[in-house]
Amino acid sequence: MLLAQAPDGVPTITRGDDLAAILVPVLERMSWPDGSTGLADGDVVVVSSKIVSKAEGRLVAARDEAERDSVIEGETVRVVAERARPDGTTLRIVENKLGLVMAAAGVDNSDVPQGTALLLPEDPDASARRLRRGLHARTGVRPAVLVTDTAGRPWRRGVVDMAIGAAGVDVLSDMRGSTDAYGRELRTTVIGVADEIASAAELVKGKVSGRPVAVVRGMGHLVTPDDGEGAASLIRPPEEDMFRHGVADD
Amino acid sequence: MLLAQAPDGVPTITRGDDLAAILVPVLERMSWPDGSTGLADGDVVVVSSKIVSKAEGRLVAARDEAERDSVIEGETVRVVAERARPDGTTLRIVENKLGLVMAAAGVDNSDVPQGTALLLPEDPDASARRLRRGLHARTGVRPAVLVTDTAGRPWRRGVVDMAIGAAGVDVLSDMRGSTDAYGRELRTTVIGVADEIASAAELVKGKVSGRPVAVVRGMGHLVTPDDGEGAASLIRPPEEDMFRHGVADD
């Protein structure tokens, strides 16, 4: 059984906040169907990158559209595709410094003070490891941590959450070598489990509910004592990337 | 709280099987943390397209690589990208008859008898509606139904599940018009909730566990009396598609 909940009561996070110290009392108030409360070993704590960025002081000035464009440009490594919007602005899908391909390079201007924009954490895997250590130090249990962000997908409408930072959880579940019911080897099935956990967590966190943290229980078989290779390993290397040079359809 | 479980005991499905009749006893054996059993209103029943296809008799002959290629070609509307694999075969990402962009046009040759391949359901939204009606007729409750398949993503390693058929559930959750904590309107946030539910369900179903059905509970706010517009509405229309002509990197 998979269980996921997003506790209420996470306060507004600002620069310099110790996320583990702030989240532990919130997480300890969670109650579970079996009557237990709080975190347990094998839990995956899923945190929106937004509050990680805020704690890490990644808010920058972006007083107008031009400043915001220049912030995005500063985060951009290459443009993958671009298209004119009906309102005259340009939608650019770009690869950012983290290797993530997303609109606006992952620069966020919702739920931030007017005149500012929020950059993604500089090293989300390091952020996840740090939060994992902090949660362990304060609770004695060793959950895994995912840092998530929201992105669109080519060909499909709607955004979904994905893992951009990870500590202590298999981000890919490799089924190759397993055989199907007819004895044939499964050739290509490597499952993006961290992204699936991020999506499950989004369903309980929501976008405007002020619940930036969720706990996913029941995935303990994916949780590891070591921090592991992190979500950076989810990024397809250039030589496997068939959509490296997207072409705008304008 | 979101809960998801994938019951054991779904028998092998073959052509002509009545999926609702076969699944109801399996689903009725599920037990939930609150002590209840079976299905309830507001549940989302998530079914792998594989068993829907098998019930609908979508198995075709594919005795060798050449026949399999010709089956894939028959399902292909256009090639979006292609690349030579190290083993000399060609990996093609194509749009299939349903408008889905995937490798091998969604033609499946794992967990099917030797010498055959399995096509996707001809109309997965109709399959979802039919199963929903059947479940309602047999149980009196009216869950939603998703039919799911597995696909890769550009730029990210690992496959994830997505919804290719839907009945009775909002496939997109439109947050536009909502405001953030600073009073600004959320401009672009339409969430692909059906795909997120499909991903959550995959985490409990798994690929080789013989559990092709999961039930996701706690998403009743997305479940609707009407069958709704289905998963076809998740497909990005050509005029919004910035990756219509992917370019192979060879």
SSE blueprint and pairings:
Two copies of one chain form a homodimer.
Chain A: E1 2-5, H1 19-28, E2 44-48, H2 49-55, E3 59-61, H3 65-75, E4 76-84, E5 90-96, E6 101-103, E7 116-118, H4 124-139, E8 144-153, E9 156-167, E10 173-174, E11 190-191, H5 193-205, E12 213-217
Parallel strand pairs in A: 2-8
Antiparallel strand pairs in A: 1-12, 2-12, 3-7, 4-5, 5-6, 8-9, 10-11
Helix pairs in contact in A: 1-4
Major β-sheet of chain A, in short?
5 strands, mixed
Distance between the termini of chain A: 46 Å
- Looking at the chains present, what oligomeric state does this protein adopt? homodimer
In which range does the helix fraction of chain A lie?
10-25%
DSSP summary, beta strand count of chain A: 12
Shape of chain A: globular
SSE string of chain A: EHEHEHEEEEHEEEEHE
Which secondary-structure class do the elements of chain A indicate? alpha+beta
The rounded Rg of chain A comes to 19 Å
Give me the CATH architecture of the largest domain in chain A, please.
2-Layer Sandwich
The CATH superfamily of the largest domain in chain A is: CofE-like
Strand line-up across the major sheet of chain A: 1-12-2-8-9
CATH third-tier fold name of the largest domain in chain A: 60s Ribosomal Protein L30, Chain: A
Segments of chain A where pLDDT lies below 50 for 5+ residues? 246-250
Provide the number of structural domains of chain A.
2
Number of helices of chain A: 5
The percentage of residues in β strands of chain A lies in 25-35%
GO molecular function (chains A, B): coenzyme F420-0:L-glutamate ligase activity; GTP binding; metal ion binding
Protein name (chains A, B): Coenzyme F420-0:L-glutamate ligase/coenzyme F420-1:gamma-L-glutamate ligase
InterPro entries (chains A, B): F420-0_g-glutamyl_ligase, F420-0_gamma-glut_ligase-dom
Keywords (chains A, B): GTP-binding, Ligase, Magnesium, Manganese, Metal-binding, Nucleotide-binding, Potassium
